[in-house]
Amino acid sequence: MSARMEDEQFLHDASLTLSNALVSESNRDAVEQCGGVQTLLQTMDLYNHNPDLVKFIIAALNRLCTNDDVSMVVAEQGMHVFMKAVQANLEDTALLSLIFELFGQLAFVKDNIKLIVQHGGIKIFLQMMEVFGDDEELMCQTLNTLDNVVSADEEYAAIMVDKQGEEKIKAVLEIHVGVTRVEHAGKATLLSMTAMSKVKEHEGSKISRGALFARLGSEFVEMSGDKHKKVGDTEPAPEGDPLAEHRNILRNGSLLKVYTNGSKAHRHIFVAKDWSSIWVKDTSSTSKQAKRIQLAKLRGVSKGYGAGHMKTGFGGKSKGVSKEDCSLYLDSLSDNNKLAIECSTTAERDHWFTALEMYLKVARLWPQLLVVDK
Q1: Which CATH fold topology does 2-201 show?
Q2: 154-179 as b/e, with b when 16 or more CB fall inside 10 Å?
Q3: How far is CA 258 from CA 184, 281, 297, 308, 340, in A?
Q4: Averaged pLDDT for residues 106-118
Q5: Which of 211, 249, 357, 368 gives the lowest tally of CB atoms within 10 Å of its CB?
């Protein structure tokens, strides 16, 4: 591709082929190692007027960005390219949706969010809601990305409030009454704005610990010991690494069963490298993206059944379809981010429960201890 930049038809065909090939992890690794990201970005910058070509490149980048390190490279080298593509295709809502989907993927890495904001991302998202508020797909991608942005820093939430972001989101929700995807995304973003705005009102709100505590809730209840005991902020930080015995399982993860409305699927579950989120990754070869659950949205973990484990049968009765003594449930502020899990054994379930419980506690009380120096 780099040797034939003047051949638009060839680049079109090559980008299509590449986007399909990148469902394979080995192919993604090969593209990364040979400098393919830069070639894709150069091609997109040169031919941002060609919607099909841009579409194929966006699909390829989306697949590459499931790797955090690649995602950071794509954001750093390509953010200006993406913004130019937005400006070049303002009338093509389908293409805009794909570009915003990429923004959403990039926003899973916190460092990328700063680049999105610096390049005028918030302004663009708000303009999209004003102009294309009736486009379901575009609004889903816009709101999902905004949710990640405002969750990252209370200053970003303040910008949204200052620019009447709450009113604009509510206007979009009025257009899409009964559309579950848009409603979930919009309500989650509003909840994030409210939580982060409250954080900003407190003294010392710039400390990430305060932000996490506000999002997790001051009424969070310990899962062990006295169930009525609240976790306050006075418990002293422990000596050493409180996650030392749990880091291996949390980072490497396990292939576990994940349930949605009683239907199960095998997913690789692990904590992100920056310890700010949990990945729920489809291991099938046709998977396009992984789902990511922000730590700031998690409320707690419990043993046994959760909503996703339950299946409604005849007569409207619900029953758990997993093995209860092998099940655990991650609760979240957002319905889309609740996680119903089944492990292979009770021992494995207990191991994961203990690790996740400590992960949430450290995030809540001592977030400075989440990432250890290597």
Answers
A1: Leucine-rich Repeat Variant (1.25.10)
A2: bebbbbbbeeebbebbeebbeebeee
A3: 20, 10, 18, 8, 6
A4: 89
A5: 368
Read off the pLDDT of residues 298-352 as tens digits, 9 standing for 90 and up: 888 999 998 889 887 666 677 888 999 999 999 887 777 889 999 999 999 999 9
Residues 6+ apart with CB under 8 A from 363: 212, 216, 275, 295, 370
86 against 293, higher pLDDT: 86
Q: Is 160 left (phi over 0), alpha (psi -120 to 50) or beta?
A: alpha
Residue 242 confidence (pLDDT) above 90: yes
CATH topology for 247-369 is PH-domain like (2.30.29)
Report the candidate in 61, 150, 72 with the shortest Cα–Cα distance to residue 100. Answer: 61
* pTM for the model: 0.59
| Cα within 13 Å of Cα(65), Cβ side | 28
Strand partners, 72: none
Instruction: For residue 12, give Cα distances in angstroms to 62, 68, 267.
Output: 17, 27, 33
Q: What is the pLDDT of residue 316?
A: 64
CA atoms within 13 A on the CB side of 157: 24
153-187 pLDDT per residue, tens? 888 888 998 899 999 999 999 999 999 889 988 99
The residues with which 310 forms a beta bridge, in sequence order, are 320
Question: Where exactly does CATH 1.25.10.10 map onto the chain?
Answer: 2-201
**In terms of Cα–Cα distance, which of 251, 254, 353, 246 is closest to 306?**
353
Buried b (16+ CB within 10 A) or exposed e, 243-275: beebeebbeebbebbbbeebebeebbbbbbeeb
**Phi, psi torsion values for 261, nearest 5 degrees:** 50, 40
One-letter identity of residue 366: W
- Alpha-carbon separation of residue 164 from 168, 170, 213 (angstroms): 6, 10, 26
